[in-house]
Amino acid sequence: MTGEPMNLNGKTAVIYGGAGSVGGAIAAAFTEAGASVHLAGRTEATLKARAAELGAEYAVVDALDEQAVDRHAAAFERIDISVNVTTDNDVQGTPMVEMSVEDYLSPVVSAVRSKFLTARAAARHMIRQRSGVILFFGGTGEPSAHRKWQLGGLLAAFDAVESMRRQLAAELGPHGVRVVTLQTGGIPESVPPEHRGPIEEDIVGDTLLGRAATLGDVGRTAVFAASDWGRTITGAQVNITCGSVFG
Predict the structure, then answer these.
(1) pLDDT of 48-96, one tens digit each?
(2) Is residue 246 part of a domain?
(3) SS (H, E, C) 7-62
(4) Fewest beta carbons within 10 Å, which of 1, 133, 158, 193?
(5) DSSP annotation of 99
(6) What family does this belong to (predicted)?
(7) Best CA proximity match to 205, nearest among 142, 145, 155, 138
(8) What is the tens place of the pLDDT at every residue in 121-132?
(9) Partners of 132 in the β-ladder
(10) Boundaries of domain holding 87
């Protein structure tokens, strides 16, 4: 095999929500691949602990705060990779017909706002650099009729972010910037243990492979998507659903 190895040596990566399970997995994989990793989030205690584990930097940043996001990004000389895996203020466990409009719209508003702000801040660096990768996590696809989860507005939020991803990819592509979503069918390890059992059964039961993606799978796929090995991928979802979404 010829070409550059799949690594992130010399790359600066900012991960919003980096102290969470998915963000932490991506941060660990990026660190192992040689990137300079910077975690951002709202809770200093968890950020500090995860940063210490990885030898990463961290900053307390509310991804919904426009001034905070812009101020944090402006402190970097360059940003090569931006990942936003912040939670989206979703209200789950209530049938849609019993939800308030505020609860249904909450994840849509927070997802669109936070992803827009962090992507915009990174893109301003990346346009000047003529390179960069913006990663989202979630994606869309035809929902399974077998899933009985009451997810509220979460899927609508994913759809809205995917629309943003397509538009960003079109606008930023001429500047050498890629925009990619890691498309998930659910990561059981990211679910609190007390709720994991039935949810994991549903996730695995919908797959073609009879297993779900792990946090390690998420991290390794993120490295691929952000590295030069993934340089032909933009405006697209990288499917890590184990076949729960296909076609």
Answers:
(1) 999 999 999 999 999 999 999 999 999 999 999 999 999 877 777 788 8
(2) no
(3) CCCCCEEEEECCCCHHHHHHHHHHHHCCCEEEEEECCHHHHHHHHHHHCCEEEECC
(4) 1
(5) S
(6) Belongs to the short-chain dehydrogenases/reductases (SDR) family.
(7) 145
(8) 999 999 999 999
(9) 177
(10) 12-239
Q: Residue 180: name the closest of 100, 241, 119 by CA.
A: 119
Amino acid identity, position 200: E
Above 70 in pLDDT, residue 158?
A: yes
Amino acid at 243: G
Contact (Cβ atoms closer than 8 angstroms) between residue 61 and residue 42: yes
- Spell out a b/e string for 161-190, using b for 16 or more CB atoms within 10 Å of the CB, else e: bbebbeebbeebeeeebbbbbbbbbbbbbb
The domain that holds 88 is classified in CATH as 3.40.50.720
Strands (E), the chain: 12-16, 36-41, 57-60, 81-84, 132-138, 177-183, 236-239
Nearest alpha carbon to residue 86 among 150, 28, 138: 138
Distances (CA, A) of 238 to 69, 140, 184, 235: 26, 11, 9, 10
CA–CA separation, 201 and 194 (whole Å): 14
Specify the number of domains making up the chain. 1
Burial class of residue 194, CB neighbours in 10 A (0-12, 13-18, 19+):
exposed
Q: Which residues contact 144 (CB under 8 A, 6 or more apart)?
A: 206, 244
Write out the E strands in 148-208: 177-183
In this structure, the number of other CB atoms found within 10 A of the CB of residue 209 comes to 11
